[in-house]
Amino acid sequence: MTYDVIVIGGGPAGLSGAVALGRALRSVLVIDSGEGRNAPAEGIHNFLTRDGMTPAEFRAAGRAEVEKYGGKVIEGEVVSAVPGFEVTLADGSVHRARRLLVTAGVVDVLPDVPGLTERWGSTVLHCPYCHGYEVRGKAIGVIGTPGEEMTDHKMRLWAQWSPDLRLLAQDEIAAVEEGGVRMTDGTLVARDYLVVTTRLEARGGFLATLGLEPVEHPMGIGTYVPATDPTGRTAVDGVWVAGNIADPMAQVITSAAAGLTAGAMINADLLPPAPDKQ
Question: For residue 90, what pLDDT is reported?
């Protein structure tokens, strides 16, 4: 069948957009790779009435709502999308739609320090608004470059949550271990939690076949797929973006709001043309 809309990405933006479209009686297929950016986190925060809900619980509840309104959710990795729109998955299956909503998100690329990746989302953190309250008063190490503007900003920001803050120069770190950071001189700096700045890489390589590719973000934080207007419309007719792929710094609640906006605009775009006025 040809769906009204295929949503690529089953995070807060994609599920929210799919619910809006389902409530508008549109046929919707959500394709989710199952690689949610916030999957390692213990819970989501700053989402009114959903504080502390695990990412897995949030996704399960969102999928159930999509299906409640007639939408379909499948697991799969999109490898290409061509004008038409014809979407091909890694397993070779092909799905078609009249419009696309791309909410595939971003990947956090961590600094090249042994031991960081294994602790990502547990004792290695990046966002004070996501995790600051939970680690308040703990011994926190900020990994960065002394004198760098972003590092200075993070030190001042995280000081709101803990007085026990220490800057750790990235080029002087040998490895992250249980209970702290091993420096190149052999000393162990005891820390309960570490803060890092990640590079945010948009999951948008499959859009190249549509003539739409991720570009460098103007803030220098990574790559994103820019929208041409606040609704998420892109430079490619019939394709919208929402969530972290379009706004890498968006939190769960703002991503969900962006998905709702895009879904409503896609529904309006699918309306039949207005009759000619005499």
Answer: 96
Domains of the chain: 2-107+199-269 (3.50.50.60), 111-195 (3.50.50.60)
Q: What pLDDT, on a 0 to 100 scale, did the predictor assign at position 144? A: 93
**Do 111 and 143 contact (CB within 8 A), yes or no?**
yes
Give yes or no for residue 278 having a pLDDT over 60: no
Cis peptide preceding 85, ω within 30 of 0: yes
pLDDT surpassing 60 at residue 197: yes
Q: Which long-range contacts (CB under 8 A, 24 or more apart) does 181-186 make?
A: 181/141, 181/143
Cα–Cα distance measured from residue 238 to residue 223, given in angstroms and rounded to the nearest whole number: 22
Per residue in 149-179, pLDDT tens?
889 999 999 999 999 999 999 999 999 999 8
Mean pLDDT of 45-55: 93
